[in-house]
Design a protein that fits this description.
The chain is mainly alpha-helical and 101 residues long. The chain has a domain at 32-101. Helix content is 49%, strand content 8%. It contains 3 helices and 3 strands. It has helices at 2-28, 38-55, 80-83; strands at 33-35, 70-72, 77-78. It has a 3-stranded mixed sheet. A hairpin with a 4-residue loop joins β2 (70-72) and β3 (77-78). The longest helix is centred in the first third of the chain and has 27 residues, at 2-28.
């Protein structure tokens, strides 16, 4: 029985450490996102704009819209405002359904 309880404690400890590591990685992985093509960058920015515009009723772009956090093909980081043509929710064609290109 002593060996079984030691094994359970060891497994629980490892799981807790892995979950803590996952939480830390998730928190800090939202920095610069590497994307391979301009199309992928536009898609990433479009998703972000759709969510923000729809949630705010068409009034607010994402808070990180002007922050350079998208890197295209190993270049310098760019903001979604530089990558994506819509600069505000008003320039989106259908705010109720989210922005579209």
């Amino acid at each position: 029985m002593k060996g079984l309880s030691t094994t359970i404690i060891l497994v629980v400890t490892v799981v807790v450490i892995l979950v803590a590591a996952l939480v830390v990685l998730t928190i800090f992985s939202q920095g610069i996102q590497n994307v391979a093509t301009i199309t992928q960058a536009e898609s990433l920015c479009l998703s972000s704009a759709q969510i923000s515009c729809s949630a705010s009723g068409g009034t607010t772009m994402p808070s990180t819209w002007s922050v350079p956090n998208v890197r295209i093909a190993g270049g310098t980081p760019q903001s979604c405002a530089q990558v994506f043509s819509a600069k505000t929710c008003a320039t989106c064609t259908n705010v109720a359904a989210g922005c579209t290109i």
